[in-house]
Amino acid sequence: QLQLVESGGGLVQPGGSLRLSCAASGGTLDYYAIGWFRQAPGKEREGVSCISSSAGVTNYANSVKGRFTISRDNAKNTVYLQMNSLKPEDTAVYSCAASWLTCVHEYYYWGQGTQVTVSS
Questions:
Q1: E-only strand ranges, the chain
Q2: pLDDT truncated to tens, each residue of the chain (120 aa)?
Q3: Phi and psi (nearest 5°) for 28?
Q4: Which residues contact 1 (CB under 8 A, 6 or more apart)?
Q5: Cα separation of 99 and 115, whole Å?
């Protein structure tokens, strides 16, 4: 069964940057689209970004467009989320999840998440 582990979260000042990683084991990511999601305390989970299995299609939530970039390195079995110009409202637990081929399918495999805190 595919296992996903997120890393790279932490505490950062407003305007700073972080790069999150989603590393897979137990299988290859070659046939999976990977989405990033976030959830702040007391709020609903929000889709942040997704990248198709071929990396030919990416999408972003309006709240992060122009600031976040999703990418993948299938040779390393890893998907990344580069987060720039971070704002306090970006504070949340960030999780990655895998879907089949494209970003429009259900997400069947989830990581446990990594905490991102943006505060001055």
A1: 3-7, 10-12, 18-25, 32-39, 46-51, 58-60, 68-73, 78-83, 92-100, 109-110, 114-118
A2: 899 999 999 999 999 999 999 999 999 999 999 999 999 999 999 999 999 998 889 999 999 999 999 999 999 999 999 999 999 999 999 999 999 999 988 999 999 999 999 999
A3: -95, 150
A4: 26, 27, 109
A5: 22
How far is it, in rounded angstroms, from Cα 79 to Cα 70? Answer: 7
Go through 85-102 and write b for each residue having 16 or more CB atoms within 10 A of its CB, e for each that does not: ebeeebbbbbbbbbbeee
Q: What is the spatial distance between Cα 106 and Cα 90, in angstroms, rounded to a whole number?
A: 24
Contact 110, 93 (CB under 8 A): no
